[in-house]
């Protein structure tokens, strides 16, 4: 029994036999084809011209507005720190992380990836802590009664006399936190 020839009565029910070549046949591939996983494989949906257009169409960074809002945040954070209840003065140092976050948020979101903004965020966070401590000592001096040499010099001498090693740690936290949080919020945008 033999199988009918292809095309005579339809295709043969038998499986096709292997065709042997002495040289592998040339594959029919389109021009510019690169096998998947190889370097140079185009990513589906990637168009380099639209990426360059998107970069040009990105919103401008508003550095001046960012610095202004960060200064305002440092001022408000320092005032909030200084106006907290005097009984909680020893545990307030840890709020410097919140002050650093308040300063870093406008700098990172509005200022973008400017190299000068993270050091500025660190300085403003430490300034907010200093301002908060000075306001706190102004309140203490004012509550104690009239000072003979004036309110501000008496508050400064009280602040200098009250400095502890833990305050140095809080200033370090403010500097590092202001720097890192500003840089982190800038890279997330």
Q: How would you portray this structure in words?
A:
- With about 190 residues, the protein is mostly helical.
- The protein has helices spanning about 50-55, 65-80, 95-110, 115-145, 150-160, 165-185.
- Helix 2 (about 65-80) packs parallel to helix 4 (about 115-145), helix 3 (about 95-110) packs antiparallel against helix 4 and helix 4 (about 115-145) crosses helix 5 (about 150-160).
- The mean pLDDT is about 75.
Short description:
The chain is an all-alpha fold.
Overall outline: rod-shaped
Unreliable segments (pLDDT under 50, ≥5 consecutive)? none
Provide a count of the helices: 6
Helix and strand element order: HHHHHH
Kindly estimate the percentage of residues that lie in beta strands according to DSSP.
Answer: under 5%
Alpha-carbon distance between the two ends: 76 Å
How many strand elements?
A: 0
The largest sheet is: none
| DSSP helix fraction | 55-70%
Mean pLDDT: 77
Which class best fits the helix and strand makeup? mainly alpha
Radius of gyration: 35 Å
